[in-house]
Write a structure and sequence with these properties.
single chain, 6 helices
């Protein structure tokens, strides 16, 4: 038995808020590589929750692939002057687009995404095994 769509969406909102809160808490308490790496991984995780919010029935592999592609697109777009210029004018744009390219982020986005895709796959497999009928005994 799978979660109804409305509960899945509510869970994704709560998860995204939790990931964002964790990212800001780490940023407030730490400085250095842990802050940077966790920020990228948690950003990828937030985008994953957004994808599941929009398409609750999507499979983990296409969801994870789309999220990684999106995160990389945003990161590589930072090689142009557009995200930096928008980030100077708006706090929200800075949160969504970043300000400058960092190759390390390209590596860490998948860390957050793969962890959630694996959990998503495990939960789907678990709920499917509970809803499939038991095989008939051979006589």
């Amino acid at each position: 038995m799978s979660l109804p769509v409305r509960w899945t969406r509510l869970l994704m909102v709560v998860s995204a808020a939790g990931f964002a809160g964790a990212a800001y808490a780490i940023r407030a308490m730490m400085d250095g590589p842990i802050e940077q790496y966790s920020g990228a991984a948690l950003s990828g995780a937030i985008v994953y929750t957004i994808v599941i919010f929009i398409r609750p029935r999507i499979s983990p592999l296409p969801a994870g692939g789309a999220v990684i592609a999106y995160c990389w697109f945003i990161e590589f777009s930072q090689l142009t002057p557009i995200p930096g210029a928008l980030s100077q004018r708006s706090w929200l744009a800075r949160q969504l687009l970043g300000a400058q390219f960092d190759l390390t982020d390209v590596v860490w986005y998948p860390v957050g995404v793969i962890a959630l895709a694996a959990a998503h796959w495990f939960l789907r497999a678990r709920t499917r095994s509970r809803t499939e009928p038991a095989p008939a005994l051979a006589s």
